[in-house]
Amino acid sequence: MSDDLEPVRHTLLPANRSPLETAIDLGFAKLLERIDPPFPELMDPQRTPVDFLPYLAADRGVSEWSPTAPEAEKRLTVALAWPTKRQAGTRAALENAVKGLQLVPEVTAWFEQTPPGPPYSFTVRAFSQLPYSEEIDERLDRRLADARSERDTLSVSVGLSAFGTHYIGAATVCGELTTIYPIVIEGAEASGESFRGAGLYLVETTTIYPQGS
Fold first, then answer.
1. Is the separation of the CB atoms in 141 and 156 below 8 Å?
2. Which of 46, 126, 152, 201 has the most CB atoms within 10 Å of its CB?
3. Which residues of 16-33 are buried (b: 16+ CB within 10 A; e: fewer)?
4. Is pTM beyond 0.70 here?
5. Tens digit of pLDDT for each residue in 39-59?
């Protein structure tokens, strides 16, 4: 008997299976061997196809989802879904809720404030380097509501930040030309070694103040 006709070693069919059932089982087994398994890439938020992201988000229990959001935000939201749910009610969960919208979080607990704030209160500041809209503001509130505990109260503010490299340069070109002519006295002769020397010491200080906002 050839290898293609041998019974399938691992099968769910009962021992009293018919030859036809065995043949079908064998055929499907050979077919499945030619299919590359999509795991674990399919379940990786950074490598899964973009069309599969909504299904992966549903699988991880993402409650706040925007179909029109940028791809980078969708992948980040899915990646932070499980850490946020596992740490719900903590500072880390609040920070993840902000990071999921590509914002930079700054979370301050009530006991870290001066003077201390009301118990179980948090001040959440979200800094954005991208255009900010009312829609994003509403989405941020919904995500923070899912990440906080029932006893916590939040004070949320948003700031726009910009980062870059500043270059300040200055150049000074200073020159002076001096010509010295010898003294000529009629009828007088002099001989000997001649020594000439010249020196210039110049100090200039320039203070540049940034332009006020």
1. yes
2. 126
3. ebeeeebeebbeeeeeee
4. no
5. 788 899 999 999 999 999 999
Closest CA to 155 of 144, 164, 146, 143: 144
Residue 103 · residue 129 · CB < 8 Å? no
**Tens of pLDDT, residues 132-170:** 889 999 999 999 999 999 999 999 999 876 666 767 877
In the block, tokens 């293609």 appear at 4
Q: Which tokens is 79 given?
A: 């990646």
- Closest listed residue to residue 159, CA positions, set 108, 211, 113, 104: 104
Bridge-based pairing of strands 153-160 and 121-128 is: parallel
